[in-house]
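Supplementary Note 3. Input sequence used for the single-chain structure prediction.
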Amino acid sequence: MTRSTRRSRTVALTASAVVIALGATACGGSSSDSGSGAPGKGGTLTVLDKADFDHLDPQRVYTTEGSSMDQEIVRDLTGWDETGSQPKLVGDLATDTGTPSKGATVWTFHLRHGVKYQDGTEVTAPDVKYGVERFFSSDINGGPPYAAQWLVGGAGYKGPYQGKELSSIRTPDKYTIVFHLNQPVADFNETTAMTGWAAVPKAHDTGSTYDTKVWSDGPYMIKSYTKNKELVLTRNKYWSQSTDPIRQQNVDEMDVKFGQDEAAIDQQIKADAGTAQTSIQQWPIAGSDLAQLANDPSLKSRYYKIPAPGINYLAINTTRVKDLKVRQAIEYAIDKTTVRGAFGGSAYGDYATTMLSPGIGGYQKFNLYSANPAGNLAKAEELMKQAGNPKPTMSIAVENTPTQEHFADAVKTALEHIGIHVNISPIDAANYFSTINNIKNQYDLTWGDWIADWPNASTVLPTLFDGRLIKKNPQANQDLSYLNDPKANALIDKAATMTDVKQRNATYGQLDEQIMKDAAVVPLMYMNFSDMSGSKVGGVISDTILAEPSLVHVYVKH
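The predicted structure, written as discrete structure tokens, is reproduced below.
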């Protein structure tokens, strides 16, 4: 999942996809029910967002804000119960988390009875099949790539609008849906927790305009939607708590207002006057406000520091910086304390030493380089001496934002100490990822960040380090280090076919270590996102899958 100003995931055309751009980490998230007693019923929650959602159409959503809002409107086959200390996969539309067979190439789900749309009709397996088939239409683009990659016959299928069905999705009866995959996918039931594995009733599908007309089977339905201005959700009176293990229906309405800048939203919620008391933000606190607001004791009960399954890192192009000793010297030379300062300080995240972040399946704690986050110049200088004391000039690609340019300055300063001269190449933030992901544009050093689509190494390491994908995706290459190490590739292949989760995680841990032995990247921070709400908002849960404040149990205090 890639993102630029925040957590929108851009579609990577690779086996698993997500890059994000200005960041998130894994450390303690606050899950605050703000106050005791039962949640209040009624009232209006106001959501203040910098910009409108890219999409709300469930098959097109690939941003964390859009996915979080869709959880109020639509239900998926599976979902995450985040009321405990760790997210737990549960059945959502399905009665359980699905049954794999034939070596995890066939997955069967049984739907709950009595789940109803906003008009009172029942959700059926053919509705889910039709929803998933919409992924394949060229009119419905922007969503994640997994259905097209994994469903048998997906490569040639063009969606349901010409009356054709995808035969690898079967519905033997009204409540059963079976998916036939072209390879074993042990965590397929985690994919089905993503927003696109939702039911769409054919009679209410409006194609490319469905964003503003999403038909609800969740607790809330669209009352009105004026793009770039306001979205109002109201109760779906046919939703029933007895069929929904994840959500509640506490407030009467959710009023989402778009178009103020991040700092203005921060100040409004901080001031806590009028409707700000019953408001929450979905985009994170602006970097310029972060240190001050994170350390304000008066905001503690309504400040949410949410660990994200993601990493902020510096890629070293292994085809341009060929000497392993020089790459290792860079690992030791980078001062992560000044780097983190550029992103807003300790509130932004813990120092990283691995590419997998804590909380992701496969994470193992290790550190092959400097024990001190400020670096180890003596060790770096010694490695440069062993490399013959080269004095190379290197280019670094960053976004043209103040945060990123401060980051680039920190890298430049650190590397000058060991005789490496750095030229900074700022790239327009709106085009940053399309520029660096095109293999015509190769830099020696490249800033990147990445958020997992679900908390498993399979949506991180294969995408970022399978060198065989570079040629396959010349305009959408996520392997910014251009690493194509046969040892790493072999571990990627080995993990892909493993159905035993413990064994697979151990293999991904080995892969993470191999990548660090190759000195292909400098992990910088495990990212956090920080958000605030007004003093009369309760029931906010930290959604560590999306790095968003979850609204599934939200209520307004009276």
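The chain is about 25% helix and 20% strand. The two ends are 39 Å apart (CA to CA).
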